Every structure is written in structure tokens, then in C-alpha cells.
Amino acid sequence: MMISGGGGGGGKSSWSSSTSSWVPTTSVSASGKRIQREMVELNNDPPPDCSAGPKGDNLYHWIATIIGTPETPYQGGIFFLDIKFPIDYPFKPPEVVFKTRIYHCNVDPDGRVSMGILKDDWSPALTITKVLLEVRSIMTNPDPYNAVVPGIAHLYSGDRAKHDDIAAEWTVRFAK
Amino acid sequence: NSPPWHLHCQFLDFPFCVPLLPPQVCNAYHDSRTDQNTFWWLEALHHAEQNKDFSTELIRKIEEAISGTSNNSKSSRVASRISIKKVAEQCNPVRTDINNIPYLVMSNVLVYSFRSISSLKYQIQTGLDQLEASRKTLLDQLLEIDQTMEKPNEENIECVGKCRNCQPNCDGPCALCELDILFQDYEARLFVLKNERGRIISSAEEAVDFQKKNLALNHFLSKLSQSSHSSTVSDISHEESKKRNVGQRVVVSKSASELELILGVLNYCKSRLGRDSVSAATKHLHVFEGMRKQFGHTRSLALAQAQYLRAHDEIKMAVSRLHPRENEDDKSLDDLGENELAAASSNFSHDKFMSLTMLSQIKGKLRYLKGLVQSKQKLQFESPNSSLFTRETTAMSNSTEEKGALLSKTDDETCPICQEKLGKQKMVFQCGHVTCCKCLFAMTEKRLQNNKLHNWVMCPTCRQHTDFGNIVLMHGTNLPILQCCIELTVVKNLKHPLVFKAHMEPRLKQSQEESCG
Question: Where is the RING-type domain (chain B) (predicted)?
Fold first, then answer.
């Protein structure tokens, strides 16, 4: 890791010497600029039933809230999520963790969200706005075939009514 | 002097029959025309008929004007020698037409003054009519082509293509070649009018002689296969010297003989003519001068029209070349068949847009050329022509190089990764989406650090895989960039500002046009 990082640093220094417009993209300033732009965009055009912003002074640690969608067992609930940006964001996906307990087959007991776009399907063009929309989408339509909690997925497939009752009970207990 | 007198008496026996026609023709012209420009020189010659001394001085003035013009002309050395010989050989008047004039007039003082002035009237009228007719034919043809510039005639475009490929002697000359013939005819009449003044022969013979010279000129031009303006001038000069070498008694110069004749008449008759006639004469002389100056501009306009039609021909060929490629894409059915077809369609639309952009640029330049009619702007008239050619070449080369790239609005676009405004450089993926250069390098760097060795990179917008060889750098050399050559190529481009500017300039102008549109 250190050797690789050093090599990259060498490449960057040669770049900066050749062109004045070159800015190393893995520096804090580059990813920080991107995160700041996303913050401005979120304030200007927030997605429905969502909000997000930095937690304290650390630009790389955000907190987000998602209100449960009506007609789902999570309706009325307010769920808090932690979002942590890697240093080389946006070339690596951010880490999204549910701080509020939720009964969902794609959220593990520790609250980590399991979505394709947060793993191999991540693209540098995606933004936090789109990530939040995706999280809200899986709350409406769980994906039992890529579950991290097999029991919940099994119940969702086998006995949907009981699954919804348990989810609603968790929402009342933890999210309201 | 008695022997010359005797010879001329015998020589004049022949014209006894010829002048019978001129008086009637002159009267007919006089009755049919009430134009003041025509009337003023008739009035002058009318005075000459009534006064014998005035007639003698008039002819002497004309002779002096013609000889002076011949000495001052810019024609070749052969012409200068001939004019010197003419002055030296005044003792042998039979050899040259001009030296016949004073002896004819001296004889006419006694007996034939009326007929000499009548023949002079006839020649002036004939020259003016022929000049006007050839000028009208030329301008009608030129304006006819000019009116089709917005939507050029398909036949004209095809003729341009064929005429360029075939030899000039082919059966179907294009509209521009026909226009060139008219130009030669008009040029000969406008600049060689002194020929008709120099001879005292029947009009039929004059017409035949002129047609022969015209045919010889066309034949000479067809041999050389040249149609540029400068070549035409040099060819005419060569033709003139050729004829003089043969020994034919033809006096040609670049100044209008009719103009010089009228100048002489005007200078001598100022005190005898009325105010209206003097102003009409002055106006007429200015018209002649303007026509001679206008000739060059008219010629340049015709050349611009030729370039315009050739540009249309090239656009047609470029569009036709795209069809087979689309068919090829359509035939090859693989996993990316649908994407390939969409990409081919995008490329086709892009190339058509490029052609239309180039066409609109040429149209704008042509409109600008049309507006230039002032002699003061002659130099500016030339430079837009050359810049038109340069711009056309640049546009064509850019169209070829940027086939794989899609046009996108630079003003509104931002990089999807860093979300900053895209600069003038951007990387274009095979799917047509763009990103800035440094973000692409960062993506590549991340992939290398993860030890994932691939020949492709995923488009951040649509996740389609693009080989490194298919990524295009816009506003650079527009060449495919390999993975191992990315940094080297970009550095090279940035270190050669001339090449960079050459490619950047047309792009900027197109961007401006798009923003205006």
C-alpha cells in the first residue's frame, strides 16, 4: 500500500510540473470540492422525504434522515443514517449505515446497507442524492434475492403479512 | 508626294461601294436611339462633318491618343516594337491601318469627308452595341447562377463534379465553364475595342475576324487546361504577342480603345459642345472606367460561386460515403448490434451536422463577397477568398478526425465525476458520454492500483465498457489514446501550442454558433 501510494505521488508530482492546470484528484481538496458541490445541490433540490448534511465539522462524515414511505410498513418512521466518504471519493463508494434499527432483509443487524450501487456497481457519476433515492427505493421494494439476512428474506417471500407486521412493530418501537 | 497621292487615289477606288451602307445605318441608329450617352458623341461627329478643319484636327487628335496609349500600355515588348515600327514606317502607310487614317482624311478633305465620318459613326455604334450585348449576356448568366446559391441547381453541382474530373474538352461543359467563355468574350470586347477602331472595313468582316480570334483563344486555353484568372490574363497577352508575331495588323491594349477615342473627342470638343453633352460625355467615360474596374470583381464572384458549387459536390460525396458504413454496421450482428447501430446513426447525424455547419460558413462568406463592390476594398476581397479556402480545408479535416466524437454543448456541460465545468479538453467514450481528462486519469489510476488489468474502462454515466483505444480526446489531436500513451499524448499536445490552436479555433467558432443558435 505505501509503495503504491508513493508511486502514485511520484506520478502526480511529474504531472503538476508539466501542466499548471493539473490537480491531483486523490488529494483532499479534490474530493472535498466534489462533496461541497453535492451539499449545495442537496440544499437547492432535496429529494422527497430525505435530508442530509455534514455531521459537525467533518466534511467526510454526513448524517441523513429518511422518512418512511406511506403504504409501507415503515410509514411514519424517521430513520437516521450515517454516511462516511472515503478519501478517494468519488472513485470509491461511500459507506451508508442505518443508525436506526430497521427490519429489512437488505440491512444487516449492524445497520450496513447492502445495495449494488454501493458495491461493484458504483460509478463515479453517482451522488448522495441518488444513493438516498436508492435506499428509499429498497425500503419500498426489498430485494430478497440479494439479502444479507436470510431469515427476513424467507419471511418476506413466504409470509408477507407477518413480515410487514414485524416491520411495522419495529418501526413503532425504534423509529417513532 | 505625288506618288503617294496617286497610290491612295487608286486605293480609295475600292471604298466607293462600301460607304453606301453606313449613312443609312447611322440614320437608323440615330432614329431608334434617344439615349443621351449615344447622342453626345453623335453631336460631336455631326460638328466634325460640317467643319473640314475641325474634322482634320479631330482625326489627328485620335491618332495621337491611340499612339500615346500604345506607347504607355503595359503589353509585352513585341507590342512596343510594333508601335515603334509604326512610327518609323509612316512613309509606308499601306502596311498599317492606323497610318492610313491621316491620308484618308487628307483625301477626304477634298472629296470624301462625309463618308469617313459616317464610317466612324458606324464603328462607334457597333462597338458600343456589341460591348453592351456581351456584358448583358455575361451578367444575366452570372445573376442566374447567383440566384440559385441558396438552393443550388442539382445539374450545376453534377456538372461541376464531372467537369473537374473530365478534361476541359469534354462535351458537357458545366455552367461555370460556360460562364468562363462569356468572361473571355466580354473581356475581349472591353479591353480590345481599339481593334475595331483601327480598321476601316465592313462589320461582317470584323465579326468574322473577332470570332476567329475568340476560337483561337479558347483552343489555346483548352490546351493549357487552366481556368484561373491570372492565367487567363497571361494567356491573352501571349495570344496578342502571337498574333503580332504573325504580322497581322491588330492593335490590342488593356485600355479601351473606344474610351480613348471618346476621350480625344471630348478634350477637343469641350468648347463646342453644350453643357448637357459635356456632362453626358463625362458620365459615359466614368461608366467605361467603372466597367473595367468591375471586371475583376465580377471575375472573383464567379470564382467564389465555383468554390461554392464544389463544396456542395463534396458534401454530397461525403454523405453518400456514410451509407455503406451504416449498412456494414447493420449487417454485423453481435452482442452490441443495437448499440453499434445507434452509434452509427449518431455518427451519421454528427457528420451531416458538420457538413451543414461548413456549408453555412461558406454561405456567410459568399454573402460577404457579394457585398464587396468597391474598388477600394479589392485587397480585402482577395483575403476572404483565401481564408474561405483555409476554413474549408480545416472544417473538412476536423470532420474526418472527429468521426468518433459527438458534439456536445460546452457551455452547459459539466464533468459527471468532479461536477466542474468541462474545459476545452474532454475525453469522449465510445457511447458518446464525456468526462474531463484528469478524472479519466484518476479512474485509470484507481484501476491500476487495484491490480485489475483490463483493456477497458467503464463509462461513469451509462456503465458501458469502452476500450482505451476508442476513447477520443476532443480538441487535441483527436487520435485514439492507448492506455500506456495517455499521459504522453496529452503532454505532447499541450507542448505544441500551434497544433493545439489550429484544432481549437474552429471548435470555438462552432461552439459560439451553437450558443447563438
Answer: 415-463
